[in-house]
């Protein structure tokens, strides 16, 4: 079972969402776009702008925590654009 670390972007909010999942990315995005009460419910139109595949959930989660610790939109953009 492959797991993913991923970054979503909302043009409307001009914000990133960083997460991980062990389900197909398209299915995970569908859940983010569905009617729910989480952070991504604040806007529609989220798009997957970056992802990495990992062999297990713990490694994907570790990558998520590492990227979230950056707290820098500039560094997120550098990662997405392949400059990190």
The rough form would be described as: globular
- At the fold tier of CATH, the topology name is GIY-YIG endonuclease
Q: Mean of the pLDDT scores?
A: 94
**E-strand count:** 3
Helicity level:
25-40%
Number of domains: 1
How far from one another are the termini?
A: 27 Å
Spans of at least 5 consecutive residues whose pLDDT stays below 50 are none
CATH superfamily: GIY-YIG endonuclease
Q: From the helix content, strand content and strand pairing, which structural class follows?
A: alpha+beta
Largest sheet: 3 strands, antiparallel
The first-level CATH class name? Alpha Beta
> Could you say what the CATH architecture is?
3-Layer(aba) Sandwich
**Number of DSSP helices?**
3
> In sequence order, what are the helices and strands, one letter per element?
EEHEHH
How are strands sequenced across the largest beta sheet? 2-1-3
Strand residues, percent: 25-35%
Overall radius of gyration: 12 Å
């Amino acid at each position: 079972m492959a797991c993913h670390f991923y970054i979503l972007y909302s043009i409307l909010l001009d914000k990133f969402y960083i997460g991980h999942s062990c389900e197909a990315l398209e299915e995970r995005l569908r859940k983010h776009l569905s009617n729910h009460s989480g952070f991504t419910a604040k806007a529609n139109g989220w798009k997957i702008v970056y992802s990495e595949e990992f062999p297990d959930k713990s490694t994907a989660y570790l990558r998520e925590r590492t990227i979230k610790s950056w707290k820098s939109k500039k560094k997120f953009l550098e990662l997405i654009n392949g400059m990190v």
